[in-house]
Amino acid sequence: MFLGTYTPKLDEKGRFVLPAKFREELQEGIVVARSQDRCLTIETIEAFTARTKELAEAPMTVRQVREYQRMLAATAFDQVPDKQGRVTIPPNLRSYAGLDKEIVVTGVINRLEIWDAAAWDEYSAEHESAFAEMNEDVFPTV
What we know:
This protein is an alpha+beta fold. The chain has a single domain (about 5-135), classed as Chemotaxis protein chec (3-Layer(aba) Sandwich), CATH 3.40.1550.20. The protein has 5 helices and 8 strands, in the order E-E-H-E-E-H-H-E-E-H-E-E-H. The chain has helices at about 20-25, 45-55, 65-75, 90-95, 115-135; strands spanning about 5, 15, 30-35, 40-45, 75-80, 85-90, 105, 110-115. The strands form 2 sheets. A 6-stranded antiparallel sheet has the order 1-7-8-4-3-5, sandwiched between helices. The two termini are about 15 Å apart. Belongs to the MraZ family. Forms oligomers. This is Transcriptional regulator MraZ.
C-alpha cells in the first residue's frame, strides 16, 4: 500500500529518487503514465496490466475506448528503477504534468502520483473542504 507525501527533487536529467519505503515493492519494474488531473502515476507493471486488462478487452468500435487507450498507452513509459532507486520521467510526461525541479510524490493507496509542487499545493487547498464534507452519501459502501 502506498501512503504519505514526499518531496524529492527532479534532477537535470528528469530523474528523482523514489521514497525509500516504496523501493522494494517497485524494484522489479514500474509504469509511469499520465493521469487525468495533470499529474503522473507510478504503478507496478503488474498493477498497470491488471488495471488496463478490461480496457484492452473493450471494443475498439467505441470511440472513447480508442481515445482513452491512445492517450494512456502512447505516453506510458515502463522502466526498472536504478540501483539508487532513481526513476526517469521522460520529457513528454514532465511537460504534461508541468514538472520542474520541485515535485511532490503522493501515495494514493494502490499507486503513487507525481505532481508539480505548486500544482499539488493548489489542488490540496482546493479540495480540502470537499474531502472534509464527504460522507456515506458519496461512498455508501465505505
